[in-house]
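Form 7-S
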Amino acid sequence: MPRLEPGMARIRVKDLSLRTYIGIKEEEILNKQDVLINLTILYPAVDAARENHIEHALNYRTITKAIIAHVEENRFALLERLTQEILDLVMQYPAVRYAEVEVDKPHALRFAESVSITLAAGRD
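Output:
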């Protein structure tokens, strides 16, 4: 993860709990499963911090609502694909300089609490 530079803000969405179709086994294809999403976004926040107006901020609620709709309305064979699609959605916002997405699939393996995939993207 890049260092937090002056004027940059780090937004973290922690443990966004959703249900979706994820997997390749018949049971996974037929039944929704829980996924946990953790998201980190860096964006320039000088104007938002100085002006205290929403139009100067990156609206994390709007981004989160888009993620919820996308995850709950689609089907995914692979955790990697789900993670990439969430990352692509976040990077559509021009103010985002860096984003990291981790998606956990609880109880995907016997004897393990969860399995997760993390992907990141950035721009100058």
